[in-house]
Amino acid sequence: MKQHSFFLCVLFLPLLVLLSWTGYLVFTLYTAQQVVLAVKGYDPLDLFSGHYIQYEIDWEKTNCRQFPEGYCPKAQFAKILHRYYLPEQAAEEIDRLMQAQNSVSVRFDMVFSYIKGRQPIARMLLINNQKWFDYLNNERKK
Fold first, then answer.
1. For the chain, what is the domain count?
2. How far is the C-alpha of 47 from the C-alpha of 28, rounded, in Å?
3. Could you tell me the pTM of the whole model?
């Protein structure tokens, strides 16, 4: 009987850890302050390009007064991976837009869930203040 209960504990422990971690991330995502940072793209030329866009935060175009500290916490955002995963077709289109960002009037922003001292979580990519999928749908209709 002890062996049976030990087996069940070992079996459900990873599931419990995964559910706890997911719960923590969801809680952080929805209770944290949302901040909007201007981003610009660059071409990383890696094996998986086309499945995500890779970006840099453009601190010069970001309003740093939106943070509780009153200044941009650049060190905290430097620790995160600057990738945003998208469906492959959308990633290709958006990547082309990001590469031509200087020649066309398109502004990219990333919405983050932010809590001081914790790792920020990327929530949504905005293009000209629209969610990326709304922007692409509107452009395809034109």
1. 2
2. 31
3. 0.77
Phi, psi of 116 (to 5 degrees): -55, 130
C-alpha distance across the termini of the chain, in Å: 68
Residue 95: how many CB atoms within 10 A of its CB?
A: 19
Amino acid code (one letter) for 129: N
- pLDDT tens across the length of the chain (142 residues): 677 788 888 888 889 999 999 998 888 878 889 999 999 876 555 545 557 788 889 999 999 999 988 899 999 998 888 888 888 778 778 878 887 776 678 889 999 999 888 889 899 999 999 999 999 999 888 7
CA-to-CA dists, residue 137 to 17, 41, 114, angstroms: 39, 21, 29
Q: Are 32 and 123 in contact (CB under 8 A)?
A: no
**Could you tell me if 44 and 101 lie in one domain?**
yes
Residues 66 and 12 in one domain: no
Residues 24 and 41 in one domain: no
Tell me the C-alpha distance between 142 and 112, whole Å: 30
Segments forming the whole domain that contains residue 107: 33-141
From 17, 27, 55, select the one nearest 115 (Cα to Cα).
27
